Amino acid sequence: MSGINSKIQELGSVEKTMLIPLWSRAEESMNGGLIDDQLSIDIINKIDTSLYGFNQMSRFVKNYLLTAIANRTILIDEYLDKIINKDSIVYNFGCGLDTRFARYMDKVKQWNDIDMPEVVDIRRSFATESEVYRMHSLSILAENPLYGLEIDKNCVVICEGLLMYFDESEVKGFLKKMIDATESGNMILETLGSWTKIKINPVIKGIGENSRYTWSLNNTKDCRKLDIRMEMVDSKTIFDLNKSRWGSMGTLMRSTYLNKRVSSKITLYRY
Ligand SMILES: C[S@@+](CC[C@H](N)C(=O)[O-])C[C@H]1O[C@@H](n2cnc3c(N)ncnc32)[C@H](O)[C@@H]1O
After folding, report:
1. % of the chain residues with pLDDT over 70
2. Is ligand 1 within 6 A of the CB of residue 209?
3. Helix (H), strand (E), coil (C) string for 95-139
4. Torsions phi, psi of 255, nearest 5?
5. Is 142 in the pocket of ligand 1 (CB under 6 A)?
6. Site to substitute for ligand 1 among 11, 13, 18, 52, most atoms within 8 A of C-beta
7. Closest of 96, 115, 98, 75 to residue 263, by C-alpha
8. Looking at the DSSP assignment, which residues form a beta bridge with residue 192?
9. Apex CA 264: angle with CA 22 and CA 163, to 5°?
C-alpha cells in the first residue's frame, strides 16, 4: 500500500477531493454516528491522512461536514432502495473511493463505478471486480461517457459530489449524452446552491487544494432547463434530516431563501 499515498498526492485538485467524503464517512462511522461504514474506515486506515489537515478543522466545520456527508449518504441510499431491483444497472459517476457498491452489489444486476483513470487505478487497490461489480476509467466529458459499458433502459445514474465542479454547458452535455444513450432510467444527482460558488469550500482549502464549485442549481425542479426529458420525482436537502446535529445552522436553513442558495440537495429524477 506504500505507493497509494504517492499516487494520491499526484492526483489533480478535483480528483483529490475524493478524500473528503471518504474521511468523513470513516470519521462519522468510527464514532458510532449517523452511518455505519466499516469499509470507509478500512480504506482510510491505509491512507496517510496527516497530509491533508483534517485534524485542523474547526469544530463547527467538522460537524457541518460530517453531518452533510452522512445525510447525503443516507438520502442517496433511501432513493436507491426505492428504485433498484435485481435487473438494475447502476452507473456511479465520479465514484472516487465511495463504498456504496459494497452495500448494493447483491441487490442489482450490475454496479459500475466510474472515475478518471488515476482514481480508478487507486480504487483497484481497495476493490475487486466481479461479474456484478465493475470499475471503469471514463470522464463525464468524454464523447461517450458509457464507452464499453452495458447499456440498459432500467438504469440508475448517480452523481454524488461531482457536477458542481463543471460548468453548465458541460453538465447539460453530459446529461444529454446519458439520456440519448440509455433512453430511460433514473438519476440521483447532488446539486449545490449558488452561494457555495462564492468562496472555495474551506474543507477543500484545508486539504491544500483550490478547486472551486462552478455549477449550481437553486431550484431542483428546474431540471427541464437542463434536459427537457427529465422529470423531478423527489428532492431533499441535507438539512431535512438529523436536525439535532445542525444547531443554529438548522434554524437559519428554515428560511427557504437561504436554504435554496446554500444547501446541498439530493434529487431523484426520472427520464
Ligand atoms: C468530491 S469527489 C466525490 C467522490 C464520490 N462520489 C464520493 O462521494 O465519495 C469528486 C470525484 O469526481 C471525480 N471526477 C473529477 N472529474 C471527473 C470527470 N471528468 N469524470 C468523472 N469523474 C470525475 C474525481 O476524480 C473525484 O473522485
Report:
1. 99
2. no
3. CCCCCHHHHHHHHCCEEEEEECHHHHHHHCCCCCCCCCEEEEECC
4. -75, 120
5. no
6. 18
7. 75
8. 264
9. 70
What is the C-alpha to C-alpha distance for residues 65 and 61, in angstroms, rounded to an integer? 6
The pLDDT score that the predictor gives to residue 152 is 86
Q: How does pLDDT run across 220-234, given as a tens digit for each residue?
A: 999 889 999 999 999
For residue 167 the three cell numbers come to 460548468
Q: Is the pLDDT of residue 136 over 70?
A: yes
Q: Where are the alpha helices (DSSP H) in 155-214?
A: 168-182, 202-206
Does residue 208 contact residue 17 with C-beta atoms inside 8 Å?
A: no
Q: Is 145 in the pocket of ligand 1 (CB under 6 A)?
A: no
Identify which of 92, 103, 115, 163 to mutate to test ligand 1's pocket (most ligand atoms within 8 A of the CB). Answer: 115
The DSSP secondary-structure symbol of 267 reads E
Question: pLDDT tens for residues 1-58?
Answer: 569 999 999 999 999 999 999 999 999 999 899 999 999 999 999 999 999 999 999 9
Could you give the domains of the chain?
2-270 (3.40.50.150)
Q: Is the Cβ atom of 140 under 6 angstroms away from ligand 1?
A: yes
Contacts 24+ apart (CB under 8 A), 143-150: 143/177, 144/177, 144/181, 145/93, 145/114, 145/174, 145/177, 145/178, 146/91, 146/177, 146/178, 146/181, 146/182, 149/91, 149/112, 150/89, 150/110
Is residue 39 lining ligand 1, measured as CB closer than 6 Å? Answer: no
Q: Rounded to two decimals, what is the model's pTM?
A: 0.96
Cell digits for 126? 481497495
- At residue 62, does pLDDT exceed 90? yes
Bridge partners of residue 91, in order along the sequence: 112, 157
Question: Would you say the CB of residue 264 lies under 6 angstroms from ligand 1?
Answer: no
